[in-house]
């Protein structure tokens, strides 16, 4: 079967599967999405996606690669139910902590890989780690290209996917929590909620762009903002006193160890 990368099949249209589908659709592809809940399909329908509640029907609708965006505790059952229809197909699980070996045992005829994207894929600003020992070079390049249509994607060893899941998949929630704190801090010093949000978003985006375009280490850029007896160093001192950096590190490590 010739793989049609323009029309990937996404099994599971929840938060992550929906984000990936939306990002791919915005990039010009035509994904087919299967999801069991009618209410979620109604949300996705407005975006012009090809939708179904039937996984088999989704597989029959396209010869594209099959992306499984199913919860880790469910993905093996879903794969087993479709195993006969996955023979020879390029498949990619986006479920954290479910190994290639486990996936192959559920559908040994498929060509398996794994990817860990994040929900920013929906707006073309995602990050994904991709791994496989089944795909040939063309398949590997095509699948990397698929995820690069909605942000950045890197090829990693499977052993590194848990770290990717921590630093990108989960830690996006940490950044959003920080944004929430920025808004609350803005309110505390007299800014409106709307202006605080605008300032927070611009600050995060600006910091990321500075690091990316200058190539400087974040610490070097941070130090460049500080002046003797200035306001910035006073704020940094207060953050360090509250264990800001340590809290982030421990949060990341706790996330990594949670599986």
From TrEMBL:
Chain residues that bind NADP(+): 11-16, 69-72
Subcellular localization, as worded in the UniProt entry: Cytoplasm
Keywords, in A-Z order: Amino-acid biosynthesis, Cytoplasm, NADP, Oxidoreductase, Proline biosynthesis
Amino-acid positions noted as binding NADPH in the UniProt annotation, renumbered to this chain: 55
EC number: 1.5.1.2
CC annotations in GO: cytoplasm
Statement: the UniProt record of this protein carries the keyword Oxidoreductase: yes
A GO molecular-function descriptor: pyrroline-5-carboxylate reductase activity
Pyrroline-5-carboxylate reductase dimerisation domain ranges (all copies): 158-257
Reactions that this protein is recorded to catalyse: L-proline + NAD(+) = (S)-1-pyrroline-5-carboxylate + NADH + 2 H(+); L-proline + NADP(+) = (S)-1-pyrroline-5-carboxylate + NADPH + 2 H(+)
Domain Pyrroline-5-carboxylate reductase catalytic N-terminal: 10-96
Functional pathway: Amino-acid biosynthesis; L-proline biosynthesis; L-proline from L-glutamate 5-semialdehyde: step 1/1
Domain of life: Bacteria
InterPro entries: 6-PGluconate_DH-like_C_sf (IPR008927), NAD(P)-bd_dom_sf (IPR036291), P5C_Rdtase_cat_N (IPR028939), P5CR_dimer (IPR029036), Pyrroline-COOH_reductase (IPR000304)
GO biological process: L-proline biosynthetic process
Assigned protein family: Belongs to the pyrroline-5-carboxylate reductase family.
Function according to Swiss-Prot or TrEMBL: Catalyzes the reduction of 1-pyrroline-5-carboxylate (PCA) to L-proline.
Designated name of the protein: Pyrroline-5-carboxylate reductase
Biological source species: Jonquetella anthropi DSM 22815
